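Below is one protein, fold included:
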Amino acid sequence: MSMYQYIIYEEEAGIATITMNRPKVYNALNDGMKEELLQAFQQAEKSEDVRVVVLAGAGKAFCSGQDLKAAQQELEGKAYSDAIRKFYNPLILQMRQMPKPIIAKVQGVAAGAGCSLALACDVLVASEDSIFSELFVGIGLVMDSGSTFFLPRMIGSLKAFELATLGTQVQSAVALELGMVNRVVSEESLDRAVRTYAEGYLKAPTKTVGLIKQMFHQSANMSLEDTLELEAVFQDKAAATADHLEGLKAFQEKRQPQFKGK
């Protein structure tokens, strides 16, 4: 059901899978792919059938980052900031603000903006051969696409500074130890591991998960007092959902709740 040129978009049984599909260049990001990724995430958010999203890369890599050859033509004398504001910033904000969980399925390299895309997801499952790299500094650039926000919050400022300023390649086992990924599995087990996470979210109260995602995002720079008030406000939002009523009923009837994402 994909209508895209650079990605593949599929919906099946409540799961939307968005696959970056430029395997010959390790899914390097040109402007067309960035536009399509934004459109695909918007499509997944609007779809009432979708309760969880999987972001993946075709072939041997997740995403090698910005397509530097394409960028030389696409920029046409414009500033890098123009492209960042036009393409990357809206995409990252869409991913973080959509009220549905996003699972990154990472194999091979996730570098530069590709690493940023992975870190912008809510759950990261990586194969044993995967490598994460904030390689911006290798071409004399700073991190963008949200890595400056995500990385230090995941692993702490000291280690984040090291990885950002030295462009260190992080093997999957080290990424797991640092807290950059949720799980590392063999390449043969990657699909199954991602599916297990996705099925877990299919059984979860989708609107509540979305509220938790929004709370985490907002509370990152809030005081304790403001966070406590945020919890009170969002608790009322969660209590107004049909899934909350189902949860209460299931508890009283001593059975597993059958959440519908409503």
Observations:
- The first helix runs from residue 31 to 46.
